[in-house]
Amino acid sequence: MNITTQATDSHTLITVNETRIDASIAPEFKREMDEIIAASKSPMIVDISQISFMDSSSLGALVGIYKAVKQQDAFIIAGASGGVEELFKLTRMDSVFHMEKTVEDAKQSFLSVA
């Protein structure tokens, strides 16, 4: 699992550097994300733009992650496209998560709230 983080004064950018997240790596994905969340107290942007395939287990992992950070100020998923974006729409998770088209849009969203 390849996830990178970049902390700034206003947020933490979490970039998922994988093309697929499915049942075989969803538990590892959630575990690594939980560690990042525990270490970060700032609003988070999760960049999933490199992911071209997700299944229901990976979506379940994201829901678990969302529940863990719900008390924090913000959690934005950025960069969903193609089949990944369709998965969020079909499951109506696009109405649960705060989603933005790009990381830049997510950053602007934080600025408009501040």
TrEMBL record:
* SUPFAM superfamilies registered for this protein in UniProt: SpoIIaa-like
CDD domains attached to this UniProt entry: STAS_anti-anti-sigma_factors
Q: Which GO terms describe its molecular function?
A: anti-sigma factor antagonist activity
Among InterPro entries, the record links this protein to: Anti-sigma_ant, STAS_dom, STAS_dom_sf
Can you give the residue ranges of the STAS domain?
A: 21-110
Q: Which domain of life is it from?
A: Bacteria
**Classification via Pfam families:** STAS (PF01740)
Query: Which family is it part of?
Result: Belongs to the anti-sigma-factor antagonist family.
Protein name per the record: Anti-sigma factor antagonist
User: Where does this protein come from, organism-wise?
Assistant: uncultured Thiotrichaceae bacterium
